[in-house]
Design goal:
Blueprint: H1 3-7, H2 14-27, H3 40-51, E1 62-69, E2 72-79, E3 85-90, H4 95-105, E4 111-117, H5 118-125, H6 128-134, E5 137-142, E6 145-150, H7 160-172
Parallel strand pairs: 3-4, 4-5
Antiparallel strand pairs: 1-2, 2-3, 5-6
Length: 175
């Protein structure tokens, strides 16, 4: 049996198929472009500008970048009107390292989150149980838009004197 006869007008060569695909792409509506960050600093800037907006799910009245404490430096801390301290650890890709740091921050913070670009957050969501087990939340950032992907569990800080230092530092921060 001759395939050419059966195929009739349906035949296509690789070149004609490539042309057809290019034509099809040019007529499709543009798809959503993934926002990418070149630096952690840029990610933190977009995130912090969103944190203080009225649409933020975190209700932070004040923020402070780079909070130094006994076991490291937290990327961003926030203070809620209730007095709760929230910590945020940002990374471009290494969610495991950020999770470790965010979990460490639960020693002084009432809530602790990992902040990742949306694409990296999708990968981290495959390990949701790791976040839930530690009580750490996950935030995805795309431009100026932030989305809570996993909510943090409210903790009672083990080091209340560090919590007080964080509150004091945020309150007196002029940035």
């Amino acid at each position: 049996m001759n395939c050419d006869i059966l195929a009739g007008d349906m035949r296509s060569t690789p070149k004609s198929r490539a042309k057809e695909l290019r034509r099809e792409k040019s007529t499709r509506p543009p798809h959503r472009v993934e926002y990418s960050y070149l630096s952690e600093e840029q990610l933190v800037q977009d995130f912090t500008s969103s944190l203080l907006s009225a649409k933020s799910p975190f209700d932070c009245q004040k923020l402070m970048p780079e909070f130094p404490h006994q076991s490291g430096r937290t990327d961003v801390i926030g203070l809620r009107p209730s007095g709760d301290v929230i910590s945020f650890e940002a990374k471009l890709k290494n969610w495991r390292k950020a999770l470790h740091q965010a979990f460490r921050n639960t020693a002084y913070a009432h809530l602790s989150y990992v902040v990742l670009p949306s694409k990296s957050a999708k990968s981290a969501l495959l390990y949701r149980h790791e976040f839930v087990e530690r009580g750490v939340g996950l935030v995805a950032v795309t431009g100026k838009r932030i989305t809570t992907r996993i909510s943090a569990r409210k903790m009672i800080p083990l080091l209340p004197w560090v919590t007080e230092k964080a509150k004091e530092s945020v309150t007196h921060y002029n940035g």
